[in-house]
Every structure is written in C-alpha cells, then in structure tokens.
Design a protein that fits this description.
2 domains; about 525 residues; two-stranded antiparallel ribbon; Growth Hormone, Chain: A; mainly alpha; 2 strands; disordered N terminus
C-alpha cells in the first residue's frame, strides 16, 4: 500500500504498510507517526497534495498519480443494489408521465377541455415540486436520504391512485399537484446518494445508467400505457404506474446511508489512514441560502442548470404533445401513437446506456472536453427535431427525432458527471435539486403550456388543429434547444476551473475541521 511520495522523501514515513493499530510506518527515529506529530503546515500541505492528486485522478484518469495507487474497478465492485433500486424508482416516475402523455387526448375528450387547459396537467405537479424541490435539496444534505426517498415514493404512489379515482378535471389537476411531492425528492436524493456510493472512476457510468431509467420508463409508459389506455381506460393506467412506486419505495429503506463525499474521500485516503483522520465529514451543514450561493458561484453549474431546462423542454414538454400530433395529423389511435413514444424512448435509452461508459473514457481528456462532448450531442437534437416537424411523412418524422434523441442522450451522462464533480459534496443534493427543478419547471410544466397556447392561437387564426400543433412544436423547439446548446458550450469554458476549485475547497474545509477537532481535544 502506497502513501504520498512527499512523505517518503521527507522521512515522515517509510514505504511499508499500515500496522494493525492503524499507524503508518515508522519515523526515522524508530517512533510511530501519529496525527499529533504533524504540524499544521504539514497537515495543510498534505491536504493540498490530496486535492491536487484527486483532481489529476478525475481529469487525467491515470492509474497511479503522485504516489497513490488507484484501483480502477467495475460498477459491481462498489455494489449493484443502489443503482438498480434507484434506476427502478426513476423509471416508475417516468412511466407515470408517459402514461399521461398517451392518455392526454382521451382525458381532453372525457372532460371537454382545450389544448391550453389540458396542457396544465404537467404544470400541476410542478406547483408543489417547485415549492419543495430546492428546499428538499437542503433537507437531503442534512437528513437521511433513504427516508426521504421512501416518503416521496409513498406520496407519489398515493397521488397516482387518487388520479385514477378523479371524477372531474379539477380533481385530476389536484392529484398531479400531489405528485410533485414525489418528483421533488428524486433529483436531490438519487443523484447525491449515487455520487457518494460510487467514486469518480465509475461515476459517469452510474449516473448515466440512472439517467437511462427515464427513457426506459418512457418506453414502458408509452407501449404498456398505450395498451392499458386502449383496453381498460386511462384510470387503470395510472394505477399501473402507482403500485411499483409504493413497493420499491418501501424497499429503499434497506439501503445503506453513505457519508457526504464518501467516495471522494475514499478515493484519496483509503491508502493513507493518517490522511483519513483529517478528512472527516463536518457535522455542521450549510443553510438553504448559503447552499444556493455556493451553487450559483460556479458558472459551470449556472450554464448547465439553464441548459437542462431547455433539454427538459424537448425531452419532456415536446414528448407530451407528440402522441396528440400523430393522432391529429395521421389519424393514429392512442395505441398506435404510443409506439412513437416507445421508439423515441428506445433511442434515448440506448444512447444513455452506451454513452455512460463512454463518458468515463472521455473524462480522461478533461472536463472541458467532456462538456463539449455533451454539447455536440445536444446540437444534433437542435437540428434534427425542428427538421422533423418541417417534413410530412410520419416514418421520416420518427427517424429524425429518434436519431436526435440517440445522439443527444449519448452525451448526457457526461454532463451529469460534470455537475456532480463541480458541486461541493455538502451541497450536492441541493445542486441536483436545482438541476432537476429547472428541467421540471421549464420542461414538464412551462413547455406544454407554451406549445398548447401557441397551438390555440394559430387555430384562432384559421389553421386546423393538427397543423397548428405541428408549427407550434417547430417554433418552440428551434428557439429553445438552440439556446440550450449555446449554454453547454459556454459551460465548457469554466468546467475545469470550477472542478478544481470545488475539490480544493472541499479538502481544505475538511482538513480545517479535523485540525479544529484536534485542538479542542487538547494535548
């Protein structure tokens, strides 16, 4: 087992392994090196070296850096249970949203409402998610995250069952608001837990696999939901989406709760017990506004949060209206239109799944390159989707949209890894809360309303209801996704510097806490 080269050169330790009592090597005089034998300046230098080492490990991807032996493992080396369970819960949430998209035309006819009014349904759950989403990030940074997951799953499962029993549009709208309680807990808890379970050498894959649950749930919701809506009605489709969330939400209680930043600390300190003594998680947590200030001080996060809102506009808002477009323009049934959602879901799933290990490989070229890699994929979406709404043949529409979704999803895991790396561990839950809230508000809420409102406006000017929806999708997608692509390229300019700052501040903060604890304990 190796320790930093500086200690060996300076005679602080020998090159042997730690002894059974946890001390590291022997000092030149034959005594044991302990925490008390290091002066404050040596501690500071040791921590600075750890920060530099960790940064090089993250950016260069090499197997040995600054005398530290880094074991590059597979995802299974760190346990499969957390990623599998959180994957399922994320997929179930997406299943519910896809069911709503497939059933939208049927719901609109059942309650006799307009495009603008039915477009309020995706917005409904954001009313509560927007209120609790960001504070939930602070809550997740201070409390046991697996408990929050279970509570959220219970609430959204109950909301699904109540939606199935709705007898008026207002009642259905109210249940979608309640659904926001569950949605508001996913981003800050899932991604924060995964970032603490899995170190940087596999984190891109893990976060990408988790992200692939969205298109996977979209496929299930589109295909299975379409069948259930056609055969049994939209109410039973909501029941089918609610039950798995309740079951797996309870099972989440069996997860182990990791320390904040656990994988980041272990990556450097697992081979140096002395360093581990200083890198302890502070008991004090940052407050709500202090957390937000830290997040928005990182330009990378600001640009990627903004870009995520535009990606949500396309991948959530546009998909909400897509079944309606194919039903109106090409005369498809709800079951036939659900196949379109399924095709796009498969393309997104494949892109995200195979893009996850690719993101870990691209990380070796640095965070600037990794961010630009993701931006290139989103740029493809900004070209193919508007083009799809400009053509007339349904097969060509599906082909163009599937190609764009495939390429864009291929680059998304790397962008999520950049968000994780540039977010300080003590506010990482909050970072992902804001990141997810941007997607939810602008993607799941604002986009359907904007698209529906422009469609109604064009209908009022004499355009038929199929063409009005097509042109509304074309205009909105062109403007919004193009802006999102620009934001990601801007984020690439700041990614490397922001990650460096985050790592250095993290280790310095933990070291200061360790020295403070040592001083308070006395000689």
């Amino acid at each position: 087992m190796l320790v930093p080269d500086r200690q060996v050169r300076d005679g602080l330790v020998d090159s042997g392994s730690p002894t059974a009592d946890g001390s590291v090597g022997a000092s030149p005089g034959g005594g044991r090196l302990t925490e008390e034998t290091l002066a404050d300046d040596e501690v500071e230098e040791l921590v600075q070296e750890a920060a530099r080492t960790h940064l090089r490990i993250e950016t260069e991807g090499i197997a040995e850096t600054a005398g530290l032996e880094v074991a590059w493992g597979r995802v299974r080396d760190y346990g499969l249970k957390p990623i599998i369970l959180l994957f399922v819960l994320n997929a179930v949430d997406e299943f519910d949203r896809s069911v709503l998209a497939v059933a939208m035309e049927t719901i609109r006819d059942d309650f006799g409402v307009s495009d603008t009014v039915v477009g309020l349904l995706p917005f409904a759950f954001v009313l509560l998610a927007g209120v609790i989403g960001v504070p939930a990030g602070t809550w997740a940074d201070r409390w046991v995250r697996k408990y929050i997951i279970t509570i959220g799953a219970m609430v959204w499962g109950a909301a699904g069952l109540l939606a199935a029993a709705s007898r008026s549009f207002f009642q259905l709208f109210t249940t979608r608001i309640l659904l926001g309680a569950g949605q508001g807990t996913i981003g800050p808890t899932h991604l924060s837990l995964l970032s603490d379970y899995y170190p940087i050498n596999v984190r891109g894959r893990v976060l990408g696999y988790h992200r692939s649950a969205n298109p996977f749930g979209q496929v299930l919701g589109g295909i299975m939901g379409g069948v259930i809506v056609a055969e049994f009605g939209w109410r039973w489709a909501f029941v089918a989406a609610a039950v798995p969330g309740l079951v797996f939400g309870v099972y989440a209680l069996t997860l182990r709760e990791p320390r904040r930043g656990e994988s980041d600390i272990d990556q450097v300190s697992k081979q140096n017990p002395l360093l581990a003594a200083f890198l302890k998680e502070p008991e004090d947590k940052k407050g709500f506004f202090e957390s937000l200030s830290t997040i928005f001080s990182r330009k990378t996060l600001v640009y990627l949060i903004t870009a995520n809102a535009t990606i949500g506009f396309a991948l959530v808002g546009v998909l909400f209206w897509l079944p309606a477009l194919f039903e109106r323009r090409y005369g498809m049934t709800p079951r036939g239109a659900s196949v379109v959602i399924g095709a796009l879901g498969i393309a997104s799933f494949l892109g995200t799944w195979f893009g996850s290990p690719r993101s870990d490989k691209e990380l070796k070229k640095g965070f600037t390159h990794l961010t630009r890699f993701g931006a290139t994929g989103v740029a493809m979406l900004a070209v193919t989707w508007p083009l799809a709404f400009a053509v007339t043949h349904p097969v060509l529409v599906i082909a163009l949209m599937s190609a764009g979704a495939l390429v864009a999803s291929y680059g998304l895991p790397g962008l999520i890894a950049v968000v994780a790396a540039s977010s300080p561990p003590r506010v990482r839950s909050q970072s992902f809360a804001v990141f997810g809230l941007a997607l939810a508000v602008f993607g799941a809420a604002v986009a359907p309303i904007l698209i529906g409102a422009l469609s109604d406006l064009l209908q009022a000017r004499g355009m038929d209801y199929a063409e009005s929806l097509r042109w509304s999708l074309f205009v909105n997608t062109t403007a919004v996704v193009g802006f999102g692509t620009w934001c990601i390229f801007r984020a690439a300019r700041h990614a490397a510097a922001d990650v460096s700052t985050t790592i250095a501040e993290f280790f310095a903060e933990l070291a200061a806490h360790g020295k403070g604890a040592r001083t308070s304990d006395g000689p």
